[in-house]
Amino acid sequence: MISQTAEYALRAVIHMAKCRESSLSTRQIADATEVPIAYLSKVLQSLTKAGVIHSHRGLKGGFSLVKPPEDITVYDVINAVDPMKRIESCPLKNTSHGKNLCPLHRRLDSVLEATENAFRSTTLAELL
Amino acid sequence: MISQTAEYALRAVIHMAKCRESSLSTRQIADATEVPIAYLSKVLQSLTKAGVIHSHRGLKGGFSLVKPPEDITVYDVINAVDPMKRIESCPLKNTSHGKNLCPLHRRLDSVLEATENAFRSTTLAELL
DNA sequence: ATAAATCTGGATATGCATATCCAATTTTAA
DNA sequence: TTAAAATTGGATATGCATATCCAGATTTAT
């Protein structure tokens, strides 16, 4: 349902939420979350660019959450590394309904919508 | 959310549901659903093995649904080609909760469950 | 019987998500 | 000022989902 990358990102930010006080290095997060350190490094870069976490370079550097866990949703994290794609238009060309969704894709998109809503309404604080 | 393969399988069986009377060749289905014919061939083989459709070899052969569209669910079709995997146990080794799910994976699995229920309760007949 | 149409199954190719590696840069502490 | 610790970003490798190709087997119509 969610990509491996999104799973890793969620594990990382949840661990950071548990250690709110200090800035954590890539290695510390990798050890705690069992994510391959080199790959985690890329994931943390994505989260940084998306503004979910802060990075601090140099000795004693590391990463920390930008906002308190109550204000960060699962949706925010997933979107930072692997954005959900809703079905905007029917993928078939030769169709009678034009760009409107056919029954199949209407149904699939409504499931996507429900999933998106579930992610939007879950904060990191609820996952500690 | 669902794989490309599952999407192709759904397009195929829905088209077959629309042409219930006759047996359709791979080419006919490929043309109607805009699925690459060689790949569709593999998808139809999976659906056959799973007992969702019948295959008829030889001249005038092709594929047809085993059951009426009212009795085939989206879940049946997806499961035939790309089974949904619920989260049975926490993917982390070093965890305090043992094989029980942590809050994150409990939440993710409940979303999976909701998705599974949506697919189980939708029949092909509703998608025509 | 024969030819044509069609499925079957194995081998192979392609593309993207996942994963690794390393040199360069930045920052802190002594 | 120097050394150590850490992020950054580019290059590269790996694995799996997706996609293609083709020779063989099966069935129908004539």
Give an account of the 3D structure.
Two copies of one chain form a homodimer. With 128 residues, chain A is mainly α. Chain A has a single domain, classed as Arc Repressor Mutant, subunit A, CATH 1.10.10.10. Chain A is built from five helices and two strands; from the N terminus they run αααββαα. The first copy, chain A, has helices at 4-18, 26-33, 37-49, 74-81, 103-120; strands spanning 53-56, 62-65. Chain A has a two-stranded antiparallel sheet. In chain A, strand 1 (53-56) and strand 2 form a beta hairpin. In chain A, helix 1 packs across helix 2, helix 1 (4-18) packs across helix 3 and helix 1 packs across helix 4. In chain A, 31% of the residues are buried. At the A-B interface, helix 1 and helix 5 of A face helix 1 and helix 5 of B. Chain A binds a DNA duplex (30 and 30 nucleotides) through helix 3.
